[in-house]
Amino acid sequence: MALNEYVWAKMKYFPAWPGKVTRHPDGIKKKGCAYVFFYGTHDFAFINEANIVPFNSALPKQHRLKKYKDAVEELQTIIEDPSKEICKNIPVCKVRVRVLKNKAKPLSFTLKTRLRLQTRKR
Asked: How many angstroms separate the first and last alpha carbons of the chain?
């Protein structure tokens, strides 16, 4: 699958869900898998490429779940108006933390956190 392509992605125990192939924030890649952003839930996962089809292909089995309908509607809105895309340049924030313990040698580590903007309909 091509980067930034809109897709239907299927995870075990879940229906095929609308998503977008994107890059992992740390540049991690898994052989035979694509990193997918899921519309509606705003989650990410590595999905086996055998379980991914282009969004413009035949619509998978319809589901009555409200979240499913909202996810499909969200992606269709973005396709019609790309300025509403929420999965652009997902920021990665690297924070350096120093921990002092009993005035001893400071412990240092780096914490990586992915910040996601979530929009909710009201």
From this structure: 34
Judge whether 24 and 39 are in contact, CB under 8 Å.
Answer: no
Q: Provide the 10 A C-beta neighbour count for residue 11.
A: 17
pLDDT tens digits, residue range 12-34?
Answer: 988 889 999 999 888 899 999 99
Q: Six-digit token pair at 26?
A: 């740390």
Long-range contacts of 89-98 (CB under 8 A, 24+ apart): 90/22, 90/25, 90/37, 90/114, 90/115, 90/116, 91/115, 92/25, 92/26
Q: Which residue type, as a one-letter code, is found at position 3?
A: L
